[in-house]
Specification:
93 residues, 62% helix, mainly alpha
Length: 93
Amino acid sequence: MEKKIKELAAEGKSKEEIVNHFVGIYGERILAVPVARGFNLMVWVAPFIVLGLGTLVLVNYLKVKSKPEASPTVQSDKVPYDELIEKELREME
């Protein structure tokens, strides 16, 4: 590749023409930094979207966790219908 770059430079090609030559052969994966258009744009945008969504989820989670929980209603030791059961048992005797 270095040999080809030297040949193209000797022919008077510009840096952009040399880069375009190799991109034409190998595709955009040859570039150190992908061009920010089309699907490659997601490489630049996705981290910020994920960071924003993660922050929202964390803030909402912390809001829910910091709310005081409603205290359960205090119930007596009596079983519901306890009096009715006792009455029916007395009637059976």
